[in-house]
Amino acid sequence: MPGLGTSFGRGGATTFQQDLQNSDCIVIMGSNMAENHPVGFQWVMEARERGAEVIHVDPRFTRTSAMATKWVGIRAGSDIAFLGGIANYLLQNDLYFEEYVKHYTNAPVIIREEFTDTEELDGLFSGWDPEQGTYDVRQWMYEGMEVHGSGGDPEAGFKATKGEQSGHGGHGGGLRYGEPPSEDPDLKHPRCVFQILKRHFQRYTPELVAETCGCSADDFVAVCEALVRNSGRERTSAFCYAVGWTQHTVGVQLIRACTIVQQLLGNIGRPGGGILALRGHASIQGSTDIPTLYNILPGYLSMPHTEAYGDFETFMKANRSPTGWWGHYDAYWVSLMKAYFGEHATDENDWLFKKLPRIDDDNSMYWTLEQMLAGNVKGYLIAGENPAVGNANGKANRLALAKLDWLVVRDLVEIESASFWYDSPEIESGELKTDQIGTEVFFMPASAHTEKDGSFTNTQRLLQWHWQATEPPQDCRSDLWFYFHLGRRIKQKLADSKDDRDDLITALRWEYPTHTQIREPSAEAVLAEISGWEVESGRFLPAYKELKPDGSTACGCWIYCGVYADGVNQAARKKPHWEQDYVAAEWAWAWPANRRLIYNRASADPDGKPWSERKQYVWWNGEKWTGLDVPDFEETKEPGYVPPDDAEAEAAIAGDHPFIMQADGRSWLYVPQGLEDGPLPTHYEPHESPFDNPLYGQRANPARQQHKNAGWDPYNPVDGEPGSELYPHVFTTYRLTEHHTAGGMTRSVPYLAELQPAMFCEVSPELAEEAGLEHGGWATIYTARSAIEARVLVTERMKPLVVQGRKTHQIGLPYHWGTRLLTQGDSANDLVHAALDPNVHIMETKAATCGIRPGRRPRGAALTEFVAELRDQAHSRREMSPRAESEESRKTAPS
Amino acid sequence: MSTLLGQEPTGVPDGHEAYGDEQQPRVGFFTDTSVCIGCKACEVACKEWNLIPQDGQAWTGHSYDNTGELSANTWRHVAFIEQEKPLRTNDDGTTALRWLMESDVCKHCTHAACLDVCPTGALFRTEFGTVVVQEDICNGCGYCVPACPFGVLDKRDIPSTANVGHQPDLLPIFGKKEDGRVWKCTLCYDRLKGGHEPACAQACPTKSIQFGPLDELHARADERLAKLEAEGWNGAQLYLRDPEDGIGGAGAFFLLLDEPEVYGLPPDPVVTTKHLGSMWRNMARAAAVLTVAIVGACARD
């Protein structure tokens, strides 16, 4: 979540779904909320009933569009042009919320002279190193300040791997000093953020937006006007997005573009405003808070690297932000180590810092996939995921699984990732032969949420407890059971080990009470440990501000501190909303500190008064901050507080700076550090697109990760290159209400399988006519990776668009199907390439190119031949006349 | 039995008053299609609660509707209609495209022909004013199937039973029959008895399906229609709300955004047994005349 994290300080939705009812305008973009978040969508409907405008901007007319008061169809992958256009409209017409922008954002801050914008460098920022394919981010810094953050101190010789810029797991970078040294409160200085922003987006006119996105300029302006009409002191607008924004090679910058619009409109931290990041699974927010990621530890603390931080002091120095709440990094860190290792972690041994594992490379999923294909990975554990269906380039994923020595799959049913060795498409095509696959596959049946206690952390940072309703059948076991007993057995085996590398495992605290015959561990005991206690007394901690860097507190995840306050499972509180106000503070528990709407200091003006009576939420009552929610501010810090020069941590945040996690207390229109691909979002074409970038010579995101020479991830020719005519259409993948992601949980359920019983593609009547597709018949869709077949749904809900003067077709592909379970079909992800966003290594499932033909695909080996033949044809045409300029070869670092 | 034979609709469900002290206020569904998001949670919740079998896996190509219709194995059905019409008549006309969604269900008619024709008494009017088939009494005669003006009533296919040589198993097995009986929405009679709302209404995330005493629902629907009309919604209308229509109004009525036919609903349903009395009388008269004629003819011979 570095998009939100770098802009506001925390990588989570800024608001909660129930608050949408207070919105005067809701823009849903990059999300099909009605279909994928139908329960939360009730609050959008509530807002609509109260008179709010609901705008859906999307390549397809979906169930969300059907409920919206306005739908604007755009080309998949053109969202930054659209959002940048809104920013430009606000800036050029002086329609931004001036007081908010001046006081609460970094608009007045002056940027270093070395910084050069994409407007001058034809689509690259200063600092580009074509050899490394990375930016030197130091050139983007505030004037008079140094770079700082958990991405590693560049001065210390640390070579950041891709994706490690986002300090604190994307929670905003640290700055050396709380108050940026150079500012222009009048926003006039040519190098102040405001002016840079204005110049950066100046060419994103309604006409350019129309030409790039394929919508009409009038429709675009109507969206701008609706936002302006519904923002300001009296009114607020909200944005909702989901993976329709994140899954792009510019995913993080896309969210950044939205944060800029909302900052300019003054909609963050206010009721009815905000940005709602809608998550795709029940606990996806939870899985980054208590991460399943390789590069962060619970609470977005960084994993140490091999190349830097030899000692604890250096590590702490590099990560502890002198100002803001990251100023207590050491307290969070030490408390985590005390939770992990108890009495084994001491001040004397630097809390076992030296023993911790280190990151030595990009260890993200697609990197691991590449290593698997190369035969460098022995074993793999898959839980809650079905990469054979759900990951980009399905074929590569399945071939990779066949290279392992062993594979453990934990799931409710035997999913495609567990059965690839006997029924994958590659078995059919002959690329894999069962008797030649050496992978030993262990399928471990998992229990469902009804069969275990635990919490889900939902889309709005809310931890909601659920209780076990029934015993798991047969050998099905909870994840908690699996990992607890796995850990217990490993500890047992290593109990007498003298090996250094086993020290951490022997030191690990692993004491959780178990119950029932199967010895299920207590999930509440785990929650209590996450929440934390005072080591000496065992007193449960009420909030993270009580965490200490001296080892006297233990806490498994500092942002969750307080979820077990007073020894009570706060997440299990279930007082319904009709028995309390709409904020419903006594329903479950939200991080941080049970705040539902974060940065809510911004709901009051700089003097602490509500911006308007209609939009009051949290305010200064003369003695303290009070209101409808837990104030996201020090309770008694006066609005007029000016930090002394030597102030540290939260004391360095001024009384009128609401973004307390940021080192300067402001939201960041411009991100001086923390991102790989630029301090400002810029429109780039998707990695695969039929079009050239209308704005810059730089076509696509220069910093995107590609697997050009790997062989397993071939790309379609793009933008009118010879060969690109074989893949002329844009496709986008998505989910349906009736199924869940890769389908393991839904294709296995008769009641859901019957509701969407076949893989289909959605095409416009115009495309059907052109390509000879018959409604209800079959189509074959192909890319350089693979070809799939799907039933044809011809619908007026798909519209051809005119982009750069050319008619373009978009094809919609749900991605739920695979070779198994009750309803079977080809997997859309087999078509998708694995070029990635550089910040978070996410694939671009939402916009790529393809071809389409009527009829079913070839079977068996003929399928592979069909795909290869087209690909070879396309690539040989391209080689005969390659693109004139090599797009990423220009160096922009000043010599 | 219904007492409507030959009478005009009264708006009072036949047989409801017979409960005396045990009579409960009449309840029903108000399905407001203007807020339906087509999530089909109602279909699934209904099947989960009532243990209804899967209804086959056919991809229809009819928009997102792969259910098709109400049947013995589908008691809630969400219809999807794609139209090139604006949502509101006062729209600027930029998107002349709308996607109507409507969750259909048994109407629990005020005057229910199915009750009239059921020979076993399996179909009955409950104390809540709803119409329910008793699964342990239905003998699968199927008379109610053509009697329903909405095509709701349907016999469940009889599965072949392998151990009796693919012969239909029609015998009661511990009080359960497999199958051939008629099944339809019970308005979750069991849940009502326990003081709960029906599963579909509880699952509906947008309150498109509203459950409650029918009087209250009527008032709510009237208010809702007035609001939509004031906002210029295209084609907003109430369906089966009127106690004076051909079935005396329904226990499950709807707010639609187009004519009922568009949703596959009969525009002007009439209780099919309405003319049964006069038909029998006419028949009796005809038979009498015929008898007289024959007897007369015989006598002349």
What does this structure look like?
The complex is a heterodimer of chains A (895) and B (301). With 895 residues, chain A is an alpha/beta fold. Chain A is built from 26 helices and 29 strands. In chain A, helix 5 (79-92) crosses helix 10 (217-229), helix 9 (206-213) packs across helix 10 and helix 16 crosses helix 18 (394-401). Chain B has helices at residues 41-50, 113-117, 144-147, 189-193, 199-203, 214-230, 276-300; strands at 27-32, 76-83, 98-105, 123-125, 131-133, 154-155, 160-161, 167-168, 182-183, 209-213, 237-239, 252-256. In chain B, the strands form 5 sheets. In chain B, strands 10-1-12-11 form a 4-stranded mixed beta sheet. In chain B, strands 2-3 form a two-stranded antiparallel sheet. A two-stranded antiparallel ribbon of chain B has the order 4-5. In chain B, strand 4 and strand 5 (131-133) form a beta hairpin. Chain A binds chain B through residues 34-35, 38-39, 41-42, 45, 49, 61, 63-67, 69-71, 216, 218-219, 222, 736-738, 750-758, 760, 775-776, 791-793, 795-797, 822-823, and chain B through 35, 37-41, 43-44, 47-48, 53-59, 61, 63-64, 66-67, 82, 84, 87, 92, 94-95, 97-101, 205-207.
Outline of the structure:
The complex is a heterodimer of chains A (895) and B (301). Chain A has 895 residues and is of the alpha/beta class. Chain A contains 26 helices and 29 strands.
Key phrases:
heterodimer; A: 895 residues; alpha/beta; 6-stranded mixed β-sheet; 5-stranded parallel β-sheet; 26 helices; 24% helix; B: 301 residues; 4-stranded mixed β-sheet; two-stranded antiparallel sheet; 12 strands
Layout of SSEs?
The complex is a heterodimer of chains A (895) and B (301).
Chain A: H1 2-8, E1 25-29, H2 33-36, H3 41-49, E2 53-58, H4 63-67, E3 70-73, H5 79-92, H6 98-104, E4 128-129, E5 134-135, H7 167-170, H8 193-200, H9 206-213, H10 217-229, E6 237-241, H11 243-246, H12 251-265, E7 275-277, H13 286-289, E8 296-297, E9 301-302, H14 312-319, H15 329-341, H16 365-373, E10 379-383, H17 387-390, H18 394-401, E11 406-411, H19 416-423, H20 425-429, E12 440-445, E13 454-457, E14 462-466, H21 479-494, H22 503-507, E15 514-515, E16 520-521, H23 523-531, E17 533-534, E18 553-554, E19 589-590, E20 618-620, E21 625-627, E22 729-734, H24 750-753, E23 760-763, H25 765-771, E24 778-782, E25 787-794, E26 801-803, E27 806-808, E28 810-814, E29 848-854, H26 861-880
Parallel strand pairs in A: 1-2, 1-6, 2-3, 6-7, 10-11, 11-12, 22-28, 23-25
Antiparallel strand pairs in A: 4-5, 8-9, 13-14, 14-19, 15-16, 17-18, 20-21, 22-29, 24-25, 24-29, 26-27
Helix pairs in contact in A: 1-12, 5-9, 5-10, 5-12, 9-10, 16-18
Chain B: E1 27-32, H1 41-50, E2 76-83, E3 98-105, H2 113-117, E4 123-125, E5 131-133, H3 144-147, E6 154-155, E7 160-161, E8 167-168, E9 182-183, H4 189-193, H5 199-203, E10 209-213, H6 214-230, E11 237-239, E12 252-256, H7 276-300
Parallel strand pairs in B: 1-12
Antiparallel strand pairs in B: 1-10, 2-3, 4-5, 6-9, 7-8, 11-12
